[in-house]
Amino acid sequence: MRQKTCMSVVAAMAVLAGCASTTAAPDGDKKGEQAAKVTIDPNPYPSTYQPLPSEATLITNVNIYDGKGGMIQNGSVLMRGGNIAAVGNDIAAPAGANVINGQGKWVTPGIIDVHSHLGVYASPGVQAHSDGNEVTSPNTAQVWAEHAVWPHDPGFGRALAGGVTSLQILPGSANLFGGRSVTLKNVPARTMQGMKFPDAPYGMKMACGENPKRVYANRGGPGSRMGNVAGYRAAWAKAADYKKQWDDYEKDYTAGKDAKAPKRDLQMETLKGVLDGDIRVHMHCYRADEMVVMLDVAKEFDYKITSFQHAVESYKIADILAENDVCSAMWADWWGFKMEAYDGIRENIPFVHNAGACAIVHSDSQVGIQRLNQEAAKALGYARKAGVDISKATAWTWLSLNPAKSLGIADQTGSLEAGKDADVVLWTADPFSVYAKAEKVFVDGALIFDLNDPRRQPLYDFELGQPGEGDAK
Amino acid sequence: MKPMKMFRFAAVAALGSLAVTAAQAEKIAITGGTVHTMGDAGVIENGIVLIDGATIRAVGRNVEVPGDYRVIDATGKWVTPGLMSASSTIGIEEVSAVPGTVDHTAREASFGAAFDISYGLNPSATNIPVTRIEGVTRAVVIPGTGKSIFAGQAAVIHLGDARDILVKPGAAMGVDLGEGGAGTAGGARGAAWVYLENAFREAGAYAGGRAPGFGEPMLNALDAAALVPVIEGDMPLLVSADRASDLRQILRLKKRHGDLKIILLGASEGWMVGEELAAADIPVILFPFANLPGNFENLGATMRNAARLNDAGVTIAIAGGNFGIRTSHNARLMRQLAGTAVANGLPWEAAMAAVTVNPARIFGIDDKYGTLERGKEADVVVWDGDPLELMVSPDAVIIRGQDIPLVSRQTKLRDRYMNLQGEAPFAYRK
Description:
The complex is a heterodimer of chains A (473) and B (430). Chain A is α/β, with parallel strands linked by helices. Chain A is built from 11 helices and 16 strands.
């Protein structure tokens, strides 16, 4: 397709010509001179997140699941300067530190949900808030969830009360390529950028199975799982070509040639980001056989699938997932709501873990995100009943460190280790109990939520002046 | 593969299926456990429950165990009545997104109140074993609305292994008087109320053998007949509504029609009118996880709803699954819902009542089920701990005297794939 002006290109299919960067030289420029190099800004919507003010805080006499599989009884956690300063048994309180006696309570890393639609399917769930699926084409890799995140979604506050300190907002699963995800710190802010997790890599949502083929069956396809895979392959083939154009440009330019930059294509740019290893693929897939087909597609086009989302049948192929180093983000017990969820079992999460594969508890729900600790507890209980012995401390890796790894933020958060962000939850009781509640939630060392202090419970714009304003939720 | 190996797998499979079908009503003594009777006897430490056939014969501490009783040792365990889901589509839906398997909503039917969900019950539905092995032994199966604000007639079922699971047809008449009902009635709440009052008037005329009035009646004869037991107070009116103003309209409805037996379904803003609901003797079936402004009719939703309604003296039942109050596949989550309600202020005993004896009373089967008392049908569960806890599950589930194998399609899938190495191909692991 030839495009004459920037405007027509944008209007036609969000494919921008090189005009996006005005420095590209016209054809037939003087020999021997190079036009300015065309580069694409990888971070045009940068994070403006600033941790809230914090004070040095020592939680003592507390039971700790450290998030990487360890358990400390009667231990302490010291937070200072927004980071975790120390975790152990004998930690002295620095002068002036706020000391919290955690007698009878538990401390864990903040929960990280890798699958949320908060902000893009915000409450109230009216049609006007339906921004999570760009249901206009099976490939919308060019859309970014962050451009639709409404930071005033009260669901963020409910998740915070459940101990969720970071979360990935994904586009929905209507499309083969749904678009880019964004990872957020779960702090109240006026803007999406004010929540954006600094330096977290982008993700890209893809979807297997029933959803794309149902949505597009009467809209030009795909109308079958065959069509789904043909759609992925066609896009990756095109993306490989697009990547080569840019790689060639880069090579020629570096060689001193007056190379012409390829036309910019936002859709291809996201796919190229995956092929370059900069963007992580999080793929909605229920059925085991489909996941294994997708692993072959990934090999065919030389990209990596970081995680399968929902992964209801991962237990059938947990060994293959372990070999391929792919995470499964799962519910504890959802099943039966559609054909590809028919074979869900209660032991999916522990069985995946037990096979040596990466297991993650996820929500995909503004309700479920409030109690992900309970989801882990149910899965663990079922595992033990089936004779698979996993410790609670190990099970907590499903809620923090494994999610952090899959999002590429494990160097900053996901476990209680000196130097990491102080994303910490103090629980009223063992968080594997139904009676436990998050009592204090810290993000980067700042107390963001306090169960016993209404002044530390965020009230979202939408809730002002409404029935139940400021109520315990 | 060698034929010999195949034969061996088949033999194992035959033994397995024999074991599964061997469940029979018998004489069972459950001994040594902490028995939560949910009745006047309260909690009995080291109690004994004697089950003879389908019926509880004795419950107490000093009960002699006759020699012909099979003993289930419940030492260190908790014994409770089987749980009852007050809002489900168990046994009426196999796969939610496969329409041919879904029989709870007659979307295109030309009638509403006359729709009787019980005809579509399927005792072979896989969500029955999946649900019962987690201690749920009874359920109300509730219709959804089609073209009328009246959804039709709910049924009570048991979750035993039987050809007939129907306990009580016509257990309630569903009607939607919230946003959904407004949409069905023509686009406004007022339209739903006009339709409702007229329907009651026409049903009254039908019952009295009179013409409903001048002109054509709005109800067809089927719906008019179906509403007669409702206006006469023999069949409860199960009203879906959430917004406090809608609940106040329902309180006024009760004042206008004193014979009506009203049950509220949802009522996420119920706590705002708790005392009025208690005074009007209107029970509430609620979903404790509702705490978001999902739309503009539940802005005041809070996890405290259960505790506040209970404090106000309202009889509450707790129900729901992952997706809301009416659940097809995860009624088993009612324990988690009840436990979380406890974490949000509801006393434990009230939470346990909200999943056993309260739904039994609300739907009028408490003469036979809901407590562990002599003469009641034997729905008994032995738990390995506090049943509202997340890591606790049943060690024995007895439904109407039937000791249910803790087997479901899910446990079979679990057992097939538990060991990914094994020598037999997966399809031969039975």
